[in-house]
């Protein structure tokens, strides 16, 4: 064993960590190798912790600067694939019990192994016996034996103590900090995210950009007897090589260790339909593929499909904010303890604060948008209205000016002639108002709703009527915040759902309406009565359970920096919510689209409760779905929506967000290509249920 400075992990009562104590061994790092591997070490960086190399303790005096191998973006110590090495770990027993080295209650030093993304590779690492009992208050150095992974890459080793058959120390709440391991070889490569297509027609050809980095110890030679090139293989889903020797792409120059570059590859797809793995692999000509010498390949899954794309999706809607099926799942305890409405909204809007809505002006609900979707019936240039207790027609600007009073259930008929509004008594046929002023209908008994025949619905509050520029009627319902919610909540969520899901929806919907009101500007209304905003059916939609949910959350809204947030929601997110900056507010950057910052009160949130949710009709119906869109239809829709003729469809490429949705979609054809905003293209242009899509099944 070669003398080395220690990698110090302090093991306290419930702590295993990389926190180094300020003593003689805490300022330098080294690794002691076992077996045939040579010992390698790197001295502590000059100046770190306020010391320089001249003040290093004697324990580090054998480490020479000439033996150090530095890397620009990772741990300084290179390890060889598949070797067995040891790391000196200092254990510090500050418990009141002895850590015995032998016997039934013996303590062993071991580790857990993780890949670069944090995925667990091995929980039960090799065991290392303590060389002697470690008494309370005693600190000792133990050489932890580590089996180095057989593939190159960056890994994390988390040391841990275990009493066999009983428990790991970390299971008792101990914090385990990792030691980074850089596993490399003379020839090693790292591959970045490529522009490989998600779907392509059989035999289709496209250019693909492949980012590369020389992560090895030696230079990639661009010329000579054994040049290094980029190649690729095609594998089917049974891991059989369909094409082994894909086209080579030469390096533009010698590539030194640590250097990065991007190559453009002319790739041809297989001729047969199916799902394949396109595997990128560097090759030293005349010597071998890097992948045969412990270097992992980069694999992109590609669907090869004739004349079109089959989309496999999850969810229904934009995927931002609250998931209604997720709220139902959390309320019914589908993925853990039952949550109340306030706890549910906190999950979906983690950056927002719950507050009480201040007293405000009534909500103004536009009933003549024209309405679509959930309401479907609208008002054009005629509206007939009545109320059980009678009504007063007044001047909107000066309610003391009364144009007419009606008896119980006596209707008034509103029509237009150009910019002129005409109001006729439905029983007598007499004109009670002709002019261009804005008028308001007020029920004589405040609790009586006003019915509008053209909508087939009744509404609480007042009804404002005026003539729009187009010569049609503009009809706006004025109601209090909670009166609005009584008529909107049943239109947005089934009234038989869990009460706490209804309460979460009430808080979210009230917040959304408050945000719309706060940002209305010079509009004469705040929200529309259909899915363009929220599905509002007034008094006709009300039910006892939804009204109770509204009353139990009276005035509750979500705020950020003291203002109502834009509290979006959709039916189902597909098991994960999305950052709005990657969907609705993605930004154009160059020829593609990138994630914007988004809103501070929304985030990517995993939602297991949505996937497990159910109601009296059965489980969540938006869990999985698929839809085929032909190449001809894709071409036609792009011409119609974007004015570009791509020619015969060839391929489609996704630029994915962290939440798993395409930020942008690049579509290539025989004549041209386009890079389109993912949300608009997938949901608006193609009409898919959501943007959480793949071209292979989930």
Beta-sheet strand percentage?
35-45%
Helical segment count? 8
Task: Report the strand count.
Answer: 52
The low-confidence parts are 1-76
Mean pLDDT: 88
Give the N-to-C terminal Cα separation: 50 Å
- Proportion in helices: 10-25%
Instruction: Indicate how many domains the architecture comprises.
Output: 4
Computed Rg: 34 Å
- What general form does the structure show? flat
The biggest sheet amounts to: 10 strands, mixed
Indicate the structural class: mainly beta
What does this structure look like?
The protein has 698 residues and is mainly β. 12% of the residues lie in helices and 35% in strands. The protein contains 8 helices and 52 strands. The strands form 12 sheets. Strands 16, 18, 19, 20, 22, 23, 24, 49, 50 and 51 form a 10-stranded mixed sheet that branches. Strands 5, 7, 8, 9, 11, 12 and 14 form a 7-stranded mixed sheet that branches. A 7-stranded mixed sheet has the order 31-30-35-38-39-28-40. A hairpin with a 2-residue loop joins strand 32 and strand 33 (420-425). Helix 1 (324-332) runs antiparallel to helix 4 and helix 3 packs across helix 5. The radius of gyration is 34 Å and the shape is flat. The model is unreliable at 1-76 (pLDDT under 50).
């Amino acid at each position: 064993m070669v003398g080395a400075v220690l990698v110090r992990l302090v093991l306290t009562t419930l702590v295993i960590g990389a926190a180094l104590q300020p003593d003689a061994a805490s300022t330098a790092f080294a690794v002691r190798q076992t077996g045939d591997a040579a010992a390698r070490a790197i001295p502590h960086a000059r100046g770190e912790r306020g010391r320089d190399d001249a003040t290093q303790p004697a324990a580090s005096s054998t480490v020479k600067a000439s033996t150090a191998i530095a890397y620009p973006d990772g741990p300084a110590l290179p390890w060889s694939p598949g070797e067995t090495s040891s790391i000196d770990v200092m254990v510090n027993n500050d418990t009141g019990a002895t850590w015995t080295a032998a016997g039934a209650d013996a303590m062993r030093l071991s580790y857990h192994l993780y890949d670069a993304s944090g995925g667990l590779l091995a929980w039960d690492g090799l065991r290392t016996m303590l060389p002697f009992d470690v008494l309370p208050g005693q600190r000792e150095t133990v050489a932890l034996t580590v089996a180095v992974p057989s593939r190159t890459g960056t890994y994390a080793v988390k040391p841990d103590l275990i009493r066999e058959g009983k428990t790991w120390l970390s299971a008792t709440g101990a914090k385990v900090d990792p030691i980074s391991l850089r596993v490399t070889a003379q020839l090693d490569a790292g591959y970045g995210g490529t522009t490989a297509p998600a779907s392509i027609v059989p035999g289709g050809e496209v250019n693909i950009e492949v980012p590369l980095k020389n992560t090895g110890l030696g230079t990639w030679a661009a010329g000579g007897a054994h040049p290094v090139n980029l190649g690729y293989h095609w594998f089917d889903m049974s891991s059989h090589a369909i094409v082994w020797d894909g086209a080579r792409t030469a390096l533009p120059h010698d590539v030194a260790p640590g250097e990065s570059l991007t190559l453009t590859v002319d790739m041809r797809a297989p001729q047969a339909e199916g799902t394949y793995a396109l595997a990128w692999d560097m090759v030293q000509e005349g010597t071998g593929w890097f992948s045969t010498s412990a270097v992992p390949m980069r694999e992109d899954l590609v669907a090869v499909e004739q004349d079109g794309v089959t989309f496999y999706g999850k969810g229904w809607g934009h995927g931002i904010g609250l998931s209604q099926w997720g709220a139902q799942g959390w309320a019914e305890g589908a993925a853990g303890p039952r949550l109340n409405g306030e706890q549910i909204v906190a999950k979906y809007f983690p950056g927002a604060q719950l507050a009480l809505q201040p007293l405000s002006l009534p909500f103004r609900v536009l009933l003549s948008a024209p309405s679509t979707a959930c309401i479907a019936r609208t008002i054009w240039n005629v509206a007939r209205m009545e109320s059980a207790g009678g009504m007063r027609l007044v001047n909107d600007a000066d309610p003391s000016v009364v144009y007419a009073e009606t008896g119980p259930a006596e209707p008034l008929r509103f029509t237009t002639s150009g910019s002129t509004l005409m109001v006729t008594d439905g029983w007598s046929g007499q004109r009670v108002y002709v002019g261009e002023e804005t008028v308001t209908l007020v029920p004589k008994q405040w609790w009586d709703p006003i019915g509008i025949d053209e909508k087939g619905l009744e509404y609480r509050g007042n009804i404002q009527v005026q003539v729009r520029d187009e010569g049609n009627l503009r009809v706006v319902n004025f109601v209090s915040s909670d009166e609005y919610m009584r008529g909107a909540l049943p239109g947005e969520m089934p009234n038989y759902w869990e009460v706490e899901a209804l309460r979460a929806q009430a808080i979210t919907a009230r917040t959304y309406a408050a945000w719309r009101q706060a940002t209305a500007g010079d509009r004469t209304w705040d929200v529309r009565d259909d899915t363009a905003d929220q599905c509002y059916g007034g008094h006709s939609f009300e039910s006892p359970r939804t009204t109770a949910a509204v009353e139990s959350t009276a005035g509750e809204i979500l705020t950020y920096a003291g203002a109502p947030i834009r509290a979006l929601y959709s039916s189902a997110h597909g098991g994960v919510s999305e950052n709005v900056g990657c969907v609705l507010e993605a930004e154009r950057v160059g020829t593609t689209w990138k994630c914007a910052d988004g809103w501070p009160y929304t985030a990517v949130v995993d939602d297991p409760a949505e996937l497990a949710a159910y109601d009296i009709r059965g489980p969540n119906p938006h869990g999985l779905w698929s839809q085929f869109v032909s190449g001809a239809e894709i071409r036609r829709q792009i011409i119609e929506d974007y004015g570009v003729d791509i020619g015969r469809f060839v391929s489609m490429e996704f630029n994915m967000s962290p939440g798993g949705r395409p930020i942008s979609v690049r579509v290539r054809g025989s004549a041209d290509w386009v890079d389109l905003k993912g949300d608009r293209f997938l949901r608006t242009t193609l009409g898919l249920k959501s943007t959480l899509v793949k071209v292979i099944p989930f």
